[in-house]
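Blinded run. Sample ID left blank on purpose so nobody reads anything into the name before looking at the predicted structure. Input follows.
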Amino acid sequence: MTLADALAAGPVVLDGGLATQLEAAGADLSGGLWSARLLRDDPAAIVAAHTAYLRAGAQVLTTASYQATLPGFARAGIGSTEAAALLRRSVALAREAAGGAAWVAASAGPYGAMLADGSEYRGDYGLSVRRLAAFHRPRLEILAEAGPDVLALETVPDTREAEALLLALDGLGVPAWLSYTVEGSRTRAGQPLSEAFALVSGVDAIIATGVNCCTPADAAAAVPVARAAGGGKPVVVYPNSGETWDATTRAWTGPVTLPAGIPTGAHLIGGCCRVGPAAIATIATTLGRPPVRPPA
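Blinded prediction complete.
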């Protein structure tokens, strides 16, 4: 069964923050490559993190390629041949952990993720749509060739980058979801969500649209907008825990509010920053998919 077929049958459980689980297990993710560094230095840690989410009840495992790009690897002294191999490895590691029991989503973060300076939470990089498409296309080609079930075009901060990603997606032959990072009823760059979601209406390669890396309240509010403006496509939501990042103290503050309830009308449901396996297990149980117990 394809993921698109499964979405027609009922809600599907996503995993949580891969970096969250890696850090909980003791991984050092400092540096511009973030979790992508472990594709080269500690692939077993990535498999273990994926496995923790599978056992919690996740039906989709998202690869460690969010911050993995050819230019980003080049800045770290990794050549294009090895960089391509690491991108392919991200899919292979998730597939290994899935063991046929989950779908694999190949993550492709925004241009700002490669800059590693928080730009994905502002958007509007001053680049044209075609230049952004040229940045994204090589990575998407490599990930698509690695054979994921779906491409996760995620944490998109504005409509210009969404347009670029749709251009870069054309002809790859792999379905995708596109999710924005938002604040209130607008993208991080300030465009109305109705306009943002309307971009995917009629795009056959996009099987779902929605939001991630935002507050749980903003995610819930975005669901009906995504459903209406996105041409009735299934809606994907995977917000942060509800805590707030304090850039001055470099610490998370405030209460955890996810999971407080399953967003009505959502089809792909999981978590992003600060959402670990325990929260995914609660979501899975609520949706009727109890956690998978490890073998004795």
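Unblinding after everyone has recorded impressions. Residues 17 and 272 are 4 Å apart (CA to CA).
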